[in-house]
Predict the 3D structure of the following.
Amino acid sequence: MIKKCLFPAAGYGTRFLPATKATPKEMLPILTKPLIQYGVEEALSANIHTMAIVSGRGKRALEDHFDISYELEHQIKGGSKESLLNEIRTLITQCTFSYTRQVEMKGLGHAILTGETLIGNEPFAVVLADDLCYCEDQGVLEQMTKVYEKYQCSVVAIEEVPVDEMYKYGVIAGKLVDGSDDIYRVSDMVEKPDPKDAPSNLAIIGRYILTPDIFDILRATPPGKGGEIQITDALLEQAKKGKVIGYKFKGQRFDCGSVDGFVEATNWFYDKM
């Protein structure tokens, strides 16, 4: 039922300067694959074949990565390194990629609203590529699509975070539903709270399934914390109507937007080789 996945990818990646001065942070590699490729593979494993990417200035490498490089393919054709392109060839063959630009950096909510022209009037997934998720049995997005099929409303991926890290996230309040130990009906959420103001220790990470009414809500959402249009504020409007589910996903998640998380992910995936 979810056919499109939106990738907000216009941010500057300032925590990785100078590496990201001319290279998109989404193209930083964990071993031999860039972060955004892991995200696209996760979407494809959830049977999503249309990838919508919100990019910005200096992000041409994203488009080039999901395209055929005739010179490179000619150079390695028939050699031992040709097989190294098999994974990206599969993505290029099985997926459709479309792009639009976020001209001004006004927050994640604004980036998602910018992607409306690529999504249209249908539910869609959102992946933040610098949140790298791994689950051997079933990808996080695939897990979330099953939750969406049951509840037919927006779904956010959540996990428990330490108190001293709550200021980095949107944090939810909610109640477990249907006798589950991992599905919450969200009643409230706070963007980057002080620990004393946090409604729980359950934080939203970079995986969402959103219903299309989110676009109209975002259009009416004033700038919030940091002067940005926050997706948390828009989701709160849905939550007030009981239309947001928090899903405590199964799997491992790495915050590759930070140097520590990036190194942790690199070491973890290397040990799995």
Observations:
- Residues 160 and 202 are 5 Å apart (CA to CA).
- The chain has a mean pLDDT of 93.
